[in-house]
Amino acid sequence: MIAALLIPAVTFAQKPLPKTYDLLVGAYTNGKSKGITVFRFYAETGRLAYLSQIDDVSNPSYLTVSADSKFVYAVNENDKGEVSSFSFDPKMGALKFINKQLTLGGAPCYVSVDKANKSLFVANYSGGNIAVLPLNEDGSIAPSVQTIGDSGPFGPNKDRQEKAHVHTAVLSPDEKYVFYTDLGTDKLHITRYKPGKDSPLSGVKPPFVSVTPGGGPRHLDFSLDKKHLYLVQEMGSAVTMFDYNSGKLTPKQTVTLLKDGYTGATGAADIHVSPNGLFLYASNRGDANDISVFSINQETGELTFVDRRAINGKTPRNFVIDPTGNFLLVANQNSDVVYVYKLDKNTGKMLGIVYKVEVGNPVCLKFAPAQ
Questions:
Q1: Rounded CA gap, 295 and 298, in Å?
Q2: Among 58, 167, 162, 158, which Cα is nearest to 111's?
Q3: Domain made up of 57-210: CATH architecture
Q4: Cellular component terms, GO, for this chain's entry (predicted)?
Q5: I want to staple 67 with a disulfide (CB 3.0 to 4.6 A). Which of 47, 115, 246, 252 is the partner?
Q6: How far apart are CA 5 and CA 190, in angstroms?
Q7: Torsion of CA 265, 289, 331, 209, to 10 degrees
Q8: Could you tell me the pTM of the whole model?
């Protein structure tokens, strides 16, 4: 069951030009959700309208959309790791299953694709590796041609860092490198990417950067000028800023996501730079249940704390900022709801909720241009 509630919008002086996007919602399917849901997003108001749903897609916990919006790829986060491909009709917001392949690792939790739609990169959390799968012209996925992982040493948290746990596989802005985070080893790995080869990923020197032991690196994003990389650490509830240059990372700053004296449960999750490049947002689960906002120094890339916003739902695992930069949408995994918050593009602060939709166990939000 999907329901929508319109809440009075926050008044703002200038409205953006009317634009529409498709919002794809990935979810865990052990509750109310049965697959991937698609909404039409109206960037003028923040309103969402239900378009379609494709069922019988097991645990599509992370999605990616091809650069031409013709295809959608979704991990199937199960012990038998798989990744599925779909054709996508942006006019109707409709998905059609094409095929799926094994990811050669358990619990895949992240998927990305290059702009040419030649290669798919999947992070296997319990498998502790990333897999590279070629793509065919019809959007279908071919069997994996390469896997890469780390054999240790592992971090100090014996319960969480007993082995490698890979969370992301992210292409650099110029797509010459692929970065992958390993919560188990406290490393951010760097590999060179050359499409069209049997082994598209190769080593670089240095092959990784490390974070504070027990930090648990998770997700990352680049600055708008591509000179800095921001890494959120799940267990440490912190963000580290690196200077970035042609595959090389130099750590410069680490900031906490926690209030002074905070002792409750945490679990930092997602991180995004605003479309105008002025602000960075990072979510924290557990008892914190909030999103922190930082301003970005446009010369140095360093972060300054701006605000911390408590989230109305539970467990803000994933969030997304709409392409106009006017709204921030939060997927609340444990309260079956996606909230739309108005953003102040001048201060970076999250203002009031303008809309919400109910979706079972939402854990991934992706935008695609509507037609």
A1: 9
A2: 167
A3: 7 Propeller (2.130)
A4: cytosol
A5: 115
A6: 44
A7: -60
A8: 0.94
